Amino acid sequence: MKLAALSLLSAALLSAPAPATASDLEKVVAEYVGLYKRETLPEWKELFLPHFSVASTREDGTVGERTLEEFYEAQRRYFESGRAIKEVLENVQIERKGKLASVWADFVLTDEGETRRGKLVLLLIDGPEGFKIHSLMFSYYG
């Protein structure tokens, strides 16, 4: 009886997906900016959960909210403009609590040589496909 129970436990553990590692989380964060280009935008979209949401502050102090499809379409149009666009993250702070993680960072968006700075936070969750981005909040205004 004990042998059968041990065999079942061993089989369950072997078939369970391995928990995501810190490097898996760091890879998603790196890909968030690394895939943010016209050529790899469809792969970039795969970093997000289907019901992802984004919120950002506006210059007038109001808050804008978008779904994944709205956000992705805006990014696609932005890149389709042919402009030289690049984003980098600085002062990245990653906090992980089990299957949940948050990433706080300063971001620098360069568009045709003009630089804008802001702050962002990503919320991620570890599921069957590894860490995915649940939501993004960002601001250029403090």
Structural features, described:
This protein is of the alpha+beta class and 142 residues long. The protein has a single domain (20-139), classed as Nuclear Transport Factor 2, Chain: A. It has 4 helices and 6 strands, in the order H-H-H-E-E-H-E-E-E-E. The protein has a 6-stranded mixed β-sheet. A hairpin with a 2-residue loop joins strand 3 (85-97) and strand 4 (100-111). The longest helix is centred in the first third of the chain and has 14 residues, at 2-15. It is globular. The N and C termini lie far apart (63 Å). Residues 3-16 have low confidence and may be disordered.
Topology:
Blueprint: H1 2-15, H2 22-34, H3 41-45, E1 48-57, E2 63-67, H4 68-80, E3 85-97, E4 100-111, E5 114-127, E6 130-139
Parallel strand pairs: 1-6
Antiparallel strand pairs: 1-2, 3-4, 4-5, 5-6
Strand content: over 45%
Mean pLDDT: 88
Helical residue percent? 25-40%
Give, in spatial order, the strands making up the sheet with the most strands.
2-1-6-5-4-3
Largest sheet properties: 6 strands, mixed
The structure class reads alpha+beta
Q: Give helix and strand order, one letter per element, not per position.
A: HHHEEHEEEE
| Terminal Cα span | 63 Å
Low-confidence stretches: 3-16
* The CATH architecture: Roll
Continuous helix count? 4
CATH topology: Nuclear Transport Factor 2, Chain: A
Query: What is the molecular shape?
Result: globular
Please report the first level of CATH classification, the CATH class: Alpha Beta
Domain tally: 1
